[in-house]
Write a structure and sequence with these properties.
155 residues, four-stranded antiparallel sheet, 1 helix
Length: 155
């Protein structure tokens, strides 16, 4: 009977550890859309960036959420995707939910009537000293996020 060298066992263990390290401790990493047709909100839907207000500055590096206004509300399969110089391919936020009040400051008022405020969460995402560009994305489709809705600058 031949004994397997220790290095084979170590190589197998290293491969398994590497595979599980991609699991990120059980945290689901958002899947970003692949290039394709641009995501189009349902016909007649108007959208605007509310928080952080477009062109605002000194927004916390960990802003936690982005709020949009839309009329009518976007389906819950939609989310917000942001891009920065350090994340040019985009980082997706959580699916849109009703925005809690009060909405943080600075805010913008949508230029249309009947806006419904929805929030996409970014948890502990950290973008220090970045210009953040905001896009809308339909996670139920294989489309390219639409926009930009606006930009803001973090501290």
């Amino acid at each position: 009977m031949t004994q397997r060298p220790v290095w084979i066992a170590l190589a197998v263990a290293g491969t398994i550890a590497t595979a599980f390290s991609g699991c990120n401790g059980g945290t689901k990493v958002p899947t970003l859309p692949t290039p394709g047709p641009t995501c189009s909100p349902p016909a007649g839907t108007q959208t605007a960036l509310v928080y952080p207000a477009p062109n605002s500055t000194a927004i916390p590096d960990q802003f936690g959420q982005i709020v949009i206004g839309s009329a009518p509300a976007l389906p819950s399969s939609w989310n917000v995707v942001v891009t920065t110089a350090i994340s040019p391919n985009g980082v997706g936020g959580g699916k849109l939910v009703a925005a809690a009040t009060p909405i943080p400051s600075p805010t913008a008022t949508p230029g249309f009537a009947g806006a419904v405020y929805q929030s996409s969460s970014f948890g502990s995402a950290n973008f220090p000293g970045e210009v953040v560009t905001v896009f809308l994305n339909d996670t139920a489709s294989n489309c390219t996020p639409s926009g930009p809705l606006g930009q803001f600058t973090t501290q």
